[in-house]
From TrEMBL:
Pfam families: ADH_N, ADH_zinc_N. This is Alcohol dehydrogenase. The gene is ADH1_3. Its cofactor is Zn(2+). Belongs to the zinc-containing alcohol dehydrogenase family. The keyword Oxidoreductase applies.
Amino acid sequence: MDHNRIDTSTDAIGASSLLTKNMSTTSGLVIPCKAAVAWEAGKPLVIEKVEVAPPQAMEVRIKVKYTSLCHTDLYFWEAKGQTPLFPRIFGHEAAGIVESVGEGVTDLQVGDHVLPVFTGECGECAHCKSEESNMCDLLRIDTERGVMHSDGKSRFSINGTPINHFVGTSTFSEYTVIHSGCLAKLNPLAPMDKVCVLSCGISTGLGATLNVAKPKKGSTVAVFGLGAVGLAAAEGARIAGASRIIGIDLNPNRFEEAKKFGITEFVNPKDYDRPVQQVIAEMTNGGVDRSIECTGNINAMISSFECVHDGWGVAVLVGVPTKDAVFMTKPINFLNERTLKGTFFGNYKPRTDLPSVVDMYMNKKLELDKFITHRVPFSDINKAFDLMVKGEGLRCIISMED
Ligand code: NAD
Ligand code: ZN
Ligand code: ZN
């Protein structure tokens, strides 16, 4: 493939305006660029020169502008409890610009601003056709896959050695190849260094409240777990006009940061000698109207359900539990007209729905800036990992060009 290589100093995007639609100077060529490669579980990433092959049918190659780090990257990088897949390029929360498109891609063109999403929307399967589901059969998240759908190959290599993709996005690279069904088109006026956080955790929490729990104006909402996902659920409750938002976390350090998110009361289950669901029922005259669980802890899941009011209460599970966790509650809790739901990516269909979430930010309805607590240049990507390991801050934006 050496004859196809181009010089990295070529600015593929900058030159695109001179070229015809869907062509760039680098179109069809292998692009050598920098990527942060994870060679081994838990070891610092290494910035390497990788070669990024051109997009194949229904694929798009993008220039990543900003990416952020999410717990899912950390979890699979640590590779505790799953089959390790290395070397690998992690990263799935990001925003970028289309550099070139593969055969059959008609809805995106060179220069479009996009949000990559770890789960996709093929538009053809039963899930995509259902108004009720966002769990596309073809492009649903698959953390064990390290290659592209079309030919089972990786688009990344170093001296001919393939490097695995991660959840179809691999955004810790200056250029990456993504299935077109996993790219939401962005309003070109939206600041990419802010809206990149909408490509995973923030949309998940926000959608859990707005699309699934659906609190009415004036209602009381409990949020279990005050990480980025839980705080996004609280942001959804604020937008929906909840009058009380009760934040529950075992870590009191989370409460200070959470004060910016419209949470009106805080409960630490460790401060009580009775179950937290009982404490919440006492605070709310019988239970909350809506409850959103964003911890991944099975006990919090059960408490989040048992703290909703009988007759109308709805609890929504967002956290990802351990494989062996079992949810146990008395069936009478259901007979007393409580509802338990779960959600994946906040029930948003990535391509169809994310543009309207971006508009909510552009219209100042949704506040994103408060989620961004740190920024680092790409060369310092390991600092973003250190911050997350220490549990500091919410989102760290990694700028690809600094
Ligand atoms: P995080 O680790 O930053 O936050 C979780 C918080 O929960 C922490 O502050 C922790 O102290 C708290 N917590 C843990 N156990 C608790 C308990 N028993 N009671 C009260 N609080 C407790 O994580 P995050 O990035 O905000 O993600 C939250 C969860 O959402 C994770 O499980 C993640 O895997 C999941 N998630 C789900 C989806 C989906 O589509 N369903 C998407 C993204 C993330
Ligand atoms: Zn994520
Ligand atoms: Zn589909």
